């Protein structure tokens, strides 16, 4: 018999943060910087823990240049060549502190990752990303990468439940990527029925990770700065963004003019678009698990960054957290049925 | 006093499958084929247990020819004549293993079914389909058909509760069709207020059927490959699709051009459209219990089939099931409030 878990799992849209008494006078007093020491690499991190996703449209070198100025982080996508990496490292060495090199779990991916890390020794972070972090094969892969790179900080995922977070941390990962299906261009839930509401996933996975002194990234499902605040409030150490960063100057792809409006393409990394681009099409035995959308052109990502960080500071002020670090301790979520007034659409 | 059952019954949209540890390396390793031996006919089945519904727009001969290439099944609708059946069986003998002949309980239905099964003895499956499988009349009909065709595999329905699944199995049916009102063009719930959320119906009916070595079909309510996976996860042995297979080249009906876009008509078998077409109109004493919609033309059904099977393989990989058979044992449903991030609109995959 299949089992049905009786308690309802929650998404960002199902909750709001309850305001609390605060001694802060202005949101400018709020400190968003965090410092972490990672469990397995023993390395330390300093920065505002918001990450541009390792998608080929958002995890770009151009994004990294702007993000690193604000001490934000970029998980660079895995499709850059060794030569492109070398050039980037030579031209913008100051960015390397705030980027990760990405890899899937294929043999060719691993070899390329090794060459990049050898050529650019200043890269301190590795992002190991597969659609299904539950396979034994992936656990073995994480162990292999940890064996080869004992001092690099390893991000690994994606998973959505505590027991798998623990398994990956014990296998050598430092930071676990949490999220299956919440992304704006992800269709995994539609194509497979598999998934987990993101807020509940973050609450449960953060609890598991922190018990082992590990860390997590909430990956996917943030549609607005308020969702980022909720992810941090739920216990995420880092929050990864895709759709919110799409459509900017720093996002990859051409600006297209359509009916007098400017748009940019954004797509999931398992969409038809991405699979055609990188592997020549969707294999016979699988379905595409992502879609392609046109997002309105949004200009320079600097403005979006200011909007996000301003929102986060305001959240902290409302709940009385002087530092981002205190946000989850000060968080009480209330369950709601609507987020905002739709009176004017 | 009316009684209210307090636990919430669930639809596909109310749940997601929880991922579980898996030793599978690739979704290409997943085996979707199933083999069943049926309780009453004693016949065996091997195939991928997804069925095109016995609606005149979906359960067509053309659909059967395409789906059988993937070992999928088609419940052929009941409006084909004996001559059309003979012609089909002669030109496409390879399809007959994966099709059922359908029948209602009306006057003449039984005679026509008997004629077809006599003319095409290779047909091994009978689909007995009525809107309300709870009538004593239907139970008797199932017994009569079983007596006349002792070694045909009989699908019968529709019902939504365990006690009626058991009754139909004990009356001679092998596979019970489960679903009242979940279909995309069904208006039974609106017109009558009667129905049962499909996921809970499947969980409860599968349990009842399997206890007697019977089988069930989850019929209706699947809007995407993920829903098909949830139906199997809930314990369905077969999953029947109508709306998801509508609008294809192989679907019945003409392609209509409208504002430069192509559409096909799709309608419930108790809709006004269907009743006009097959019974000369809606009888005075009844309301139509189906609607008619225009679905965008989707091309060849083979692409849709690959999309569905690819999705199912991926589901099995996520929950660690190397075979479709293991899916329901590996299934834990979690309750959710939304399926999909709609920040960029509902959109299609393109």
Question: What attributes does this structure have?
Answer:
heterodimer; A: 345 residues; alpha/beta; eight-stranded parallel barrel; three-stranded antiparallel β-sheet; 11 helices; globular; B: 350 residues; 15 strands; 30% helix
Could you explain the architecture of this structure?
The complex is a heterodimer of chains A (345) and B (350). Chain A has 345 residues and is α/β, with parallel strands linked by helices. Chain A has helices at 61-69, 82-91, 107-119, 136-148, 162-170, 188-192, 198-211, 225-233, 272-279, 301-319, 324-327; strands spanning 3-8, 15-17, 34-37, 44-47, 50-52, 73-76, 99-103, 125-129, 153-159, 175-178, 215-219, 238-241, 255-258, 261-267, 292-296, 333-335. Chain A has eleven helices and 16 strands. In chain A, strands 5-6-7-8-9-10-11-12 form an eight-stranded parallel barrel, surrounded by five helices. Chain A starts with a strand and ends in a 10-residue tail after the last strand. With 350 residues, chain B is of the alpha/beta class. In chain B, 30% of the residues lie in helices and 19% in strands. Chain B has ten helices and 15 strands. Chain B has an eight-stranded parallel β-barrel, surrounded by six helices. In chain B, strand 2 (34-37) and strand 3 (44-47) form a beta hairpin. In chain B, helix 5 crosses helix 7 (198-211) and helix 8 packs across helix 10 (301-319). At the A-B interface, strand 1, helix 5, helix 6 and strand 15 of A face strand 1, helix 8, helix 10 and strand 15 of B.
């Amino acid at each position: 018999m299949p089992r049905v878990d009786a308690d309802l799992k929650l998404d960002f849209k199902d909750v709001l943060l309850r305001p609390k008494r605060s001694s802060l006078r202005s949101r400018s007093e709020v400190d968003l910087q965090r410092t972490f020491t990672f469990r397995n690499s023993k390395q330390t991190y300093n920065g505002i823990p918001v990450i541009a996703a390792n998608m080929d449209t958002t995890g770009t070198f151009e994004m990294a240049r702007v993000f690193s100025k604000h001490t934000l982080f970029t998980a660079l996508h895995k499709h850059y060549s060794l030569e492109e990496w070398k050039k980037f490292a030579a031209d913008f060495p100051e960015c390397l502190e705030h980027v990760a090199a990405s890899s899937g779990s294929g043999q060719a991916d691993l070899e390329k990752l090794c060459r990049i890390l050898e050529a650019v020794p200043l890269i301190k972070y590795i992002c190991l990303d597969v659609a299904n972090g539950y396979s034994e094969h992936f656990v073995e892969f994480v162990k292999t990468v940890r064996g080869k790179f004992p001092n690099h900080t390893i991000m690994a995922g994606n998973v959505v439940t505590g027991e798998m977070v623990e398994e990956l941390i014990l296998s050598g990962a430092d930071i676990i990527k949490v999220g299956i299906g919440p992304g704006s261009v992800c269709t995994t839930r539609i194509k497979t029925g598999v998934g987990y509401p993101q807020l509940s996933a973050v609450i449960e996975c953060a609890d598991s990770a922190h018990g082992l002194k590990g860390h997590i990234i909430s990956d996917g499902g943030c549609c607005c700065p308020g969702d980022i605040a909720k992810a941090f409030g739920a216990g995420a150490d880092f929050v990864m963004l895709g759709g919110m960063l799409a459509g900017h100057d720093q996002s990859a792809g051409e600006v297209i003019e359509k009916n007098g409006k400017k748009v940019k393409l954004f797509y999931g990394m398992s969409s038809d678009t991405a699979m055609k681009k990188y592997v020549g099409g969707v294999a016979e035995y699988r379905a595409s698990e992502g879609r392609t959308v046109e997002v309105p052109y949004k200009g320079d990502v600097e403005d979006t960054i200011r909007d996000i960080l301003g929102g986060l500071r305001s959240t902290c002020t409302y709940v009385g957290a002087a530092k981002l670090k205190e946000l989850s301790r000060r968080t009480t979520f209330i369950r709601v049925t609507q987020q905002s007034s739709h009176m004017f659409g | 006093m009316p009684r209210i059952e307090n636990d919430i019954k669930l639809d596909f949209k109310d749940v997601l499958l929880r991922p579980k540890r898996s030793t599978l390396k690739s979704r290409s390793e997943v085996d979707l084929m199933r083999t069943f031996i049926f309780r009453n006919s004693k016949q065996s089945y091997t195939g991928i247990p997804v069925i095109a519904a016995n609606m005149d727009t979906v359960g067509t001969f053309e659909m059967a020819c395409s789906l059988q290439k993937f070992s999928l099944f088609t419940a052929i609708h009941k409006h084909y004549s004996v001559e059309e059946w003979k012609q089909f069986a002669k030109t496409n003998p390879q399809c007959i293993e994966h099709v059922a002949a359908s029948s209602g309980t009306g006057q003449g239905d039984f005679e026509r079914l008997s004629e077809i099964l006599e003319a095409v003895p290779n047909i091994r499956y009978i689909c007995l389909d009525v809107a309300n499988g709870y009538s004593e009349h239907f139970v008797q009909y199932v017994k009569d058909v079983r007596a006349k065709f002792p070694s045909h595999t009989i699908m019968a329905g529709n019902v939504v509760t365990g006690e009626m699944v058991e009754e139909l199995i004990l009356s001679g049916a092998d596979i019970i069709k489960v679903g009242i009102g979940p279909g995309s063009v069904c208006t039974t719930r609106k017109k009558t207020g009667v129905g049962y959320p499909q996921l809970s119906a499947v969980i409860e009916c599968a349990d009842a059927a399997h206890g007697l070595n019977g089988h069930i079909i989850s019929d209706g309510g699947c809007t995407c490959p993920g829903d098909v996976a949830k139906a199997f996860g809930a314990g369905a042995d077969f999953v029947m699709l109508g709306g998801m297979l509508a609008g294809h080249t192989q679907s019945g009906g003409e392609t209509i051009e409208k504002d430069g876009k192509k559409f096909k008509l799709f309608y419930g078998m108790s809709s006004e459209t269907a009743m006009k077409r097959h019974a000369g109109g809606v009888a005075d004493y009844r309301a139509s219990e189906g609607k008619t919609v225009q679905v965008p033309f989707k091309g060849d059904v083979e692409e849709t089939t690959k999309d569905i099977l690819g999705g199912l393989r991926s589901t099995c990989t996520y929950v660690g099931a190397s075979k479709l058979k293991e899916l329901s044992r590996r299934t834990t449903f979690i309750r959710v409030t939304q399926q999909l991030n709609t920040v960029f609109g509902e959109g299609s995959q393109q």
